[in-house]
Design brief:
Layout lengths: L5 E6 L6 H13 L4 E6 L13 E4 L8 H22 L3 E5 L1 H9 L5 E6 L11 H15 L5 E4 L5 H8 L6 E3 L6 H8 L5 H9 L2 E5 L9 H11 L5 E5 L5 H10 L4 E3 L12 E3 L7 H4 L4 E4 L8 H8 L4 E4 L5 H5 L14 E2 L4 E3 L8 H16 L2 H14 L5 H17 L1
Parallel strand pairs: 1-2, 1-4, 2-3, 4-5, 5-6, 6-7, 8-9, 8-12, 9-11, 10-11, 12-13, 13-15
Antiparallel strand pairs: 14-15
Length: 414
Amino acid sequence: MLASKKLLLLIPNLGFGGAQRVFHDHSVELANHYTVTEAVFNMDEGNIYPSENKLVSLAVDGGGNALDKIQNFARRIARLRNLKRELKTDVCVSHLEGADYVNLLSKGAEKVVLCIHGSKLHDGNINGVVGWVRKKLLMPSLYNRADRIITVSRDINPELVESFGVKPEKIQTINNFFEVGQIEEKARESLSAAEQAVYNAAPVLVTSGRLAIQKNQAPLLVIFAELLKRRPAKLVFLGDGELRNDLTRRARQLGLRVYEAWNEEMMTPDYDVYFLGTQKNPFKYIRPASLFVFPSAWEGFPMALGEAMICGVPPVTTDCPTGPREILAPTTCTPRQPIREAETAEFGVLMPMLNQPASLPADQQVWAATLDRLLGNAAERDRLGKLASRRMQDFSREKIFQQWVAVLDDVLAK
């Protein structure tokens, strides 16, 4: 262990998000091994996940027109280069693509490590002219400058090699870790009487994640409406985001009775779908659910899925790139063609993706039938829930950070 080494961690912002949570966890844990400083582009989104480590803002705005963005990009590079020199940084680890570019282009004598949180090939937000530039120019030309690239999922690796020309010897996978004990403890917190009444009224399906394109929750509403034709149930959404109004509107178009926590309505069992927003302790809402449903179009190594499994809730998830198959079916390979039927895996149920227009109606029917079957089989739910909880012991803090420290020490020694 190279305890005296200076480690700089870089991320665009410290707002709400899975990458930001991972960044915080890395910062806290790595401070036990190195001198850690955090850096962000700006503080516009606050600091949702604060640590006790030193935090420096480069104080460069985002947004604006094309010229503004170019100028801000250059300012970030210059200010990060100066910060690295000032801190005498030994290694800079960046999280998220925008930070990766700034980290690489400001590189001096320090080592550079990139942490890749998700699929680049399947990311629906990488589109248009800027997306083309990112995929065809920036990633292929810059990523090989890194001393090491850490991916959070094994299935990201072939994307980087085959689509972006990254040298395979630079790439290593280290999965995200989970605070298993803390999550288990928080999951035992009791619901309020009104909340418990909802859970007592009918089996509850719960999903957790930002209300955003990536999480692809809209088809889940159609599936749930179909499920209600077969049996009573409730659907609980944990999280908030830019698609909040679109999703609540779509739910009402489907004839679903919608509860919205932000309207300060009284929570009763009279609703079908419950939008609870961002919760300080989401786990107490997940633990008593019958199933955890996860309809994402793409992922990295999904934190919400793993957290639900720690809570002992059987997971039903799209077999999307990347992460769900690695967690639920670790001994299998990613199929060449998307699955079209439910696949009961070792630690949960993998399902068809819900973003293919040609097959979407049939895929939604597969989902509805599978959810109906599972809700009617308490023994199978109990079996899958126990297996899911057991699986997550593989991603404890101790096991994962032994790998991170080994990688950083190796990079620093060269």
